[in-house]
Amino acid sequence: MPGLYLHIPFCKQACHYCDFHFSTSMALKSRLVEALTQELALRADYLGPHFTLETIYFGGGTPSLLTAAELDQIFTAIHRHFRVAPDAEITLEANPDDLTAAKVRELAASPINRLSIGLQSFHEPHLQLMNRAHSATESTAAVQLAQEAGFENISVDLIYGVPAPDHSLWEQDLAQAFALQVPHLSCYALTVEPDTVFGRQLKKGAFRPPPDEFVARQFEMLLTEITSHGYEQYEISNFCQPGRESRHNSAYWRGVPYLGLGPSAHSFDGVSRQHTLANNPKYVASVLERAEVPATIELLSPTDRANEYLMTSLRTSQGTDLRHLSTNLGVDLLGHRADYLTYLQLNGWATLSADEVLTLTDKGKLLADQITLELFQITDFSD
Asked: Does residue 290 contact residue 37 with C-beta atoms inside 8 Å?
């Protein structure tokens, strides 16, 4: 069922690895919240009539910078223009330094029922290296305060592949995360993007990421620990206790339509994508002064839709349904890429079930990007 995403493009400071759209200036925050409520009205019909929102997700940026009054303003607008399911999953991304006892009580009194907390690490030097705004002590305290305030549906983010002499710090991070007994973990390899502090440092030789083998070993350690603690890997970077998947993100991976609001947000209606301008002042001016959303629309070709399905489904535990790909998207991988599919199976990187579902093995997950790109090589599916 459709979901709603709201991008809150503000942060206290810039993390050295982040290339998402945000600003460290809060000058436009109240105006941008006003623009979000106006955009809700302008785009109320984007997903068509008679639908009910099953998930709402506040991402960023740092949505935990929103005040209780600003959240109330946004929720009032949401309910004015949309039907929201009584059991809707409503997630807010939060940084540990924002989650004081008073703050988590405010959030617990709001419609938000799920927190995604960006811990990243419990190791102080790693937090400082990444330029996180919180301390290692705050990492643990934030989760505990949220639990004490009544939040039971909590996800925490961790980053592995951070430069270190050995794997002991990653082992400690995992142990501390499991000790907190949260139902969901999102674990990402540190990625150095060009337009980030790490990217610029790498170009100057001032930052050196660990070798691929080091990162791969930490991913293998993660899979071992996840299994031993009773979590399921339902997507390459996402792990949960049984039945505790992120409903919002799972809908993305299944290709369910959604509406994205705010600067840099994306929307998908099943046949096209809409990309909103990643510029806070221009976004605010366009929405509030001209009642226009500054966005571009990309009509998805059959090839685009097939590639998107490949990219998302292959990352999940459900795998890629080759019959769906052939019947509904016009791509016959069994016919066009039979040799490569056999190659994947012979190397232990993927399995192909009797009902033609292609699923990556643990070994294959290490090569997910390369495998997906190889399957993307098909540009003409009509032969």
From this structure: no
